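Data card: per-record layout.
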Amino acid sequence: MAFALVIVLVVSIVFPRNLVSPEAYDYACDVTSSGAKLCLHPADVSVRAQIEPLIDKAVMLTGTQNATYAEYVPGDLAPGQGRTVFTIVFDGSGNIDTEQVVHNLDSQILFTGRQCLQEQRDGNGSDIVLAELDSRVSGKSETTMEDDTRLFSGHLEPGAGFQSMSDKEFTSWLKAHWAEASSCTMKEDALP
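The structure for this 192-residue chain is written out next.
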């Protein structure tokens, strides 16, 4: 009797069963105006109108055509699968945190499938490119009075030349430097 109990105990530890299995769902996918496919968890479809313009702007700036962008859902057994996976972050009032969503989306597009360690990116031009992409996708300028002073004092900080570029010029520059920017090997002196 005790032996049978030990066997049952060992089997339950070695081969645990889920007490609660995740609820099955299908992503709700639609094509955006830029031609990208945006897939969200059914519970988050209500924020599609807020996310779609961000996807479209990122697609326009990075030139990533015919791509699929999927919301990361914890417990999803197969994140990725040929799609760019990003996280939707909500603020305390239930609205999306646009800055966090943009940064996560841009990071996933720029560093696709690569885990660039923070140590690799520190002091490297890739973070400056990512910050510029973030500000352009979110529509928020990173320019401050201090930046203006540095621009006009004759001392240009790395990446200061981005401020004079149109979105089209930035996209052309990014395409020409994509390999370095996306592999965390961008040198600051290669920045405009």
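Known properties of this structure: Confidence is low (pLDDT under 50) at residues 143-153. The first helix runs from residue 2 to 14.

See the next section for split statistics.
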